[in-house]
Design a protein that fits this description.
By secondary structure, the chain is an alpha+beta fold. The chain has six helices and 17 strands. Helices cover 22% and strands 39% of the residues.
Length: 280
């Protein structure tokens, strides 16, 4: 039998943040069962850990959504680092992900990681289509700073600044519009939307990817990393903000985001809430 852990990530208290399943020793699991196990947990991501390929690194990390394997995601990286720290690793770690090695630092309660994967600006989706996908009107989209932009540092999201916090609260995803967007902008995620409102050094955000079986994500560190890189590039200066995500779905998540040159650092807390065994 194979053990598993469940951690709530980007929170210091149980039942907040984003739940994550971690399989600390996945070496004995058949390849064909990995996606099925992730679907069974049905969290936005499940992590499978293996011995590192390169000596001196901490672990090889494979990340699955309910529908696919992905090369990188933020809350799995934070949660994995905390789980490894709880098992006696660290505090400094190197995690082998699909985007390459990621440096992390963790205690049994908090972690941070830094990525220097270059920002890729992929497209500028039609603002009307984005508004429809979010269930909003065109007037709810703010174009003062930037148009809706599809960008990635390993995983692609459309970043859209909204005109008000009220508009963010009113988001109601329309799957037909998401399908139109996915057809127009084919990528590893199906027109995933990261909508946000910024007030100085504070960002309120929500993320929707219903075509990938993620109706709403309580915390999306990979999106925050890409947004930080995008805003820093747009403004031509380093950035440090706090992101509050998941509040509208009752799972508040606190994500620290810092951009210094080409380095993007994501930090947050995680707490273990369950453990058990896979009886396969």
């Amino acid at each position: 039998m194979t053990g598993y852990l469940v951690l709530d990530v980007f929170t210091e208290v149980p039942f907040g943040g984003n739940p994550l399943a971690v399989i600390p020793d996945a070496a004995g699991l058949p390849e064909a069962q990995l996606q099925k196990i992730a679907r069974e947990f049905n969290f936005s991501e499940t992590v499978f850990l293996y011995p590192p390929v390169k000596a001196g690194n901490t672990a090889r990390v494979r990340i699955f959504t309910p529908t696919m394997e992905i090369p990188f995601a933020g809350h799995p990286t934070i949660g994995t680092a905390v789980a490894l720290a709880q098992a006696g690793h660290g505090p400094d770690m190197v995690l082998e992900l699909g985007v390459g090695p990621i440096k992390a630092r963790a205690t049994p309660t908090h972690a941070e990681f830094t990525t220097e994967v270059p920002l890729e600006v992929i497209a500028t989706p039609d603002a009307g289509l984005v508004a429809a996908a979010l269930g909003l009107s065109a007037s709810d989209i703010s174009l003062n700073h930037h148009a809706p932009t599809l960008a990635s540092v390993g995983l692609p999201f459309t970043f859209t600044e909204l005109a008000s916090r009220d508009a963010l609260a009113r988001c109601t995803p329309d799957t037909d519009a998401f399908r139109q967007g996915a057809e127009a902008h084919e990528s590893s995620l199906d027109f995933a939307q990261f909508a946000y409102v910024r007030r100085g050094n504070h960002i309120d955000a929500r993320m929707f990817a219903p075509l990938d079986n993620i109706p709403e994500d309580p915390a999306t560190g990979s999106a925050c990393a890409a947004l930080g890189a995008f805003l820093a590039q747009l403004d031509g200066e380093d950035l440090q903000v706090e992101v509050l995500q998941g509040e509208d779905m009752g799972r508040p998540s606190h994500i620290s985001l810092k951009v210094e040159g080409d380095a993007v650092t994501i930090a947050g807390a995680a707490v273990q809430v369950m453990s058990g065994t896979l009886t396969l």
